[in-house]
Amino acid sequence: MVLLIDKWRGRIQLLSHTQNSVVYAVDTDDGVGEGRANETATVLKGWAVWYRGEEPLGPLRPPDIADWIVRREAAIYEQVGRHDLIVNYLGLEVAVLRGAGPEPKAWAIRLERAPGKALRSYLRGPAPSERARLDLCLQFARAVAHVHSRGVVWGDLSTRNALVFSCPTPNPRGGAAGRSSDAAASQASSSSSTAPPSSQQSASSPSAPWRIKLCDFGTAALFENYDKDYWGAEVRYTPPGPSAHLDKRGDIKDVGIIHRELFALGSAICEITEWTVPYGPEHEVTYEEVQAMLLAGEWPDISLDNPAEDIIRRCWDYQYVAASEIVEDLESIISQSTAPQQDG
């Protein structure tokens, strides 16, 4: 595979390659010129890399299955619609593919490229101000509320799937955090591109406010179609208990889909306000160690002075019935923190 990528060096920027999908950019898009794939304004997410009718990498799925998966995620993006806090979906790529029969197949979705990386990857840097972190929580919750208002369960709710579009902090070094393929689409550098760093986008500016957009709806579904017993969130965003190692939690009864989604939202708010991943940083605490803590009944730590503690615990206690309620409570906390102090 390395030889194939070397052959297309500069023409293809391979941003993420997982067992489920690949995210990449090509120099034939957006008028960037030959060898400048890393300068495109858009990226492609699919189940193979296609370049001028050739397939340098893939397929990860048979064409018929890949066609169904691509169209499914495209339909979710269309259902969610345009929103300032959701990565822009720009269309479905369809063509007659070599070796895939005479019928056109969907081979990728096109998305806007983020200049920054996944929000989680910034946690290794210094924490922003409390107000900035609360603003990030509010953006995240507003985006989730919009997704829900469109009748969609996100499923893979995580800061791994929130891309940074502006911030006062330089992009963190290294690969995109977590396993999200869309989140990796924000990565500004890749072994498959040789363009100098100065030509690459940057989200950072000393005066820029934090701004994020949510992405990756590969496991999302309409509420009526979502598995009513499935805990889709990552392991760090699931409740402790004797069945914490299972996707279907027999130890937690009568917890509806919306409450599972809002539980994960509470964990995201905890992560952002604490500026650390629940149960400890991923490079220090392994997946297996997190599972052991969950099975032992341990909960993530919350600082005594965390202004969003009540919101987080209400999410974990299944007391909210809509993300819009969480938005209102976050707005209230922010307004109180900025209100002028009264004497006496």
TrEMBL record:
Biased composition (Low complexity): 180-207
Keyword annotations from UniProtKB, A to Z: Kinase, Serine/threonine-protein kinase, Transferase
One MF annotation (Gene Ontology) recorded for this entry: ATP binding
Superkingdom of origin: Eukaryota
Keyword hit for Ligase: no
Matches recorded under Pfam families: PK_Tyr_Ser-Thr
Disordered: region residues: 171-207
Annotated SUPFAM superfamilies: Protein kinase-like (PK-like)
Domain Protein kinase residue range list: 26-339
Record-linked PROSITE patterns: PROTEIN_KINASE_DOM (PS50011)
UniProt protein name: Serine/threonine protein kinase
Biological source species: Gaeumannomyces tritici (strain R3-111a-1) (Wheat and barley take-all root rot fungus)
Gene behind this protein: 20351168
